[in-house]
Structures are given as C-alpha cells and as structure tokens.
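User: My instructor asked us to take a sequence, write out its structure as tokens, and then describe one feature of it. I'm not sure where to start. Here is the sequence I was given:
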Amino acid sequence: MTKVDIISGFLGAGKTTLIRELLTEALKDEQVVLIENEFGEIGIDGGFLREAGVQIREMNSGCICCSLVGDFGKALGEVTRTYHPDRIIIEPSGVGKLTDVIRAVERVSGEAGVEVHSATTVVDVLKCRMYLKNFGEFFKNQVEACGTVILSRTDTEKADPEKIGEAVRLLRDLNASATIVTTPAEELGGRKLLSIMEGAKPDLLSMSDDEADHDGCEEHHDEDEHACGCGDHHDEDEHACGCGHHHDDHDHIGGGHHDEHGHHHHHHDADEVFTSWGRETARPYAEEELRRILKALTETEEYGIVLRAKGIVPKGDGSWLYFDMVPGEADVRPGAPEYTGRICVIGSKLKEEKLAKLFGTD
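Assistant: Let's start with the prediction itself. The structure tokens for your sequence are:
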C-alpha cells in the first residue's frame, strides 16, 4: 500500500513551507507525489513546489467531499499506476475540512492501493485564536481530526512563551491526544518532523457521529447560516479577524456548534461559505504597486472579507514577483518565471468588480 500523508492547515499557516522542509531533507530519497486541492479558480502553489522535482496534480474546485469524490479517487489511482510512488502527500485547501480528505482517501483505499499514514495540521501560533473565533467549523475540524499539530511562526518576536502557551491550551481543548510541536520547524529539521508526524496517528474514532455521517452534499442552508448562530454573546475582540477591523455577526463564519440537546447545527462546505476570485494576466506590476494593493486588501473591507491573496506576476523587466497576503501581513519577493501571471484572492463576500479594478485587470 502507498503511504498517504495529509498536511492540512488554515489559509497561510505554512503548509507549503513544511512540505518543502520534508521534501528537501527527509523524503529526498523517496518517490513522492504531491496532490494539491486548491480552493479557487487559479492554482498558484504548484509553482513553488515544482522546483523540488515533485509531480503535482492540482484540482481547483471546492471541497473534496462534494466536488472531487470521483476525481479524487481517479487521481489517486492514476498517481499510483503512473508513478508507483513510495508516498503521496495531499495538501488540502486551506478552507477545507480534514475529515473530508481522510474519508475521501479511505473510500478509495482498496481500489487505489493507498492508506492514510499520517494527518498533520499546521497552525499559525499568532492567528489560531482569531481563526477559531471567526471560522470555527473549519478550523476546529482541522485540529480535531489530526494526529500532529505543528505550530508555525513560533520563532517570531510576537510569539513569546505566553502567546505560545495560550495557543497550546486552546489546541489541547480541541484535541487532547494530538502531538503539538512548538519548536520551530527549521530547528527540528525535516527528518525529525517526519518521525513525529508518523508516530502520531489521527484519532478517527473520536469524531462525532454527526461529523462522521455528514457527507456535505445533501444539506441546504439559508443565508443566515453563514452567521455564527450560536446565541452566545461575543466580545469585540472575538469579531476581530486580525486585519485591523471588526465584523458583525454575519461575518462570524463557520461557527458550527452543539445546542443544549447535543445536536450539531450549521454544517457547511468550503464552497458554500468561502468564495474566490482569480485572473491570469500578462500585465506587469511594480513591487510598490503590489504592496499598495495588498495593503488595501488587508486594511479595509471595501473588497470583501479577504482571508488570502497570492500570486505570481511579471515585473516588466524580465523578472517576476511572488506575493502572499493573510490578514495583517503581506509579503512580496522575487521568484522564477511562469508561463503567465496568476492572481488568486480567497475570502467571503468578495466584490469581484472592485478586485478587478484594484489589480488593474478589469
């Protein structure tokens, strides 16, 4: 059976960085295939990983359980027959549910000759509380279903011991049995990280019956179900998404909960709650222009609630720029040329015409 390692994590948590660390050190002597499930119209991350010589199969549409069950099984079977890999790494969409991916693999394990070997979730130590408060249903699922949680950005100045301790307590409340890694990944190295991940199996038996039975394809939701709907009072800080402003209750996304009778409500799939906007473009961008655009996305809701923006664009002088933005932070750096420029924005209630105008692609 081919090993399948699932590396999950909310938007911008650092999944790609972890995969690079594993590929360049721990797995360099293995035949590895990476399957990405990008949420959005334009796949971006594959360009970052192709340099490592990894075969990539990108699937750019919604959640695996609804849209990709057929495709997913076919993809896994195709991969094992074509490449005969020692290991398959699956990097799910940052806004997807880990349980959906695990079950999709298990559903086709016999015919595809694969088995879930490990399930790991990468969590940004500085944003875990915000993501839990505002996107609880999706964030909780990724933590509850994994065997290992790897905290990213624990080496930054903002991540002091108190902040790290708070994150660990929050995560431990969600998953009492997971191994939680607080040491920076680069200090541990790829081999050590892999041994930790392989030694901690996801506790699938602990998933609730409601979660296990939910296939994500038969429920209908009102617009109001995009709100938290839990009936609890939340203070102002709980509505802060980390982007420097606050949202009302309808922006408190994915807050599935149990009522007093223990019944679970408000199951959502990623493609019900989140939306994406993407463009391919040959338009050149100056670095200063990109930084201005990303600042606008992170500091205002004029373009919707933007959770992630990323892309690869030409600079106009033969060089290329890669950019990446999560709430409160943006990065622009030089990168290798691509066949054309690509831009992707992920969030909720995105205003597509305004985004096209902001990026100059209207």
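For the description part of your assignment, you could build on this observation: Confidence is low (pLDDT under 50) at residues 60-69, 205-266. Try explaining in your own words what that tells you about the chain.
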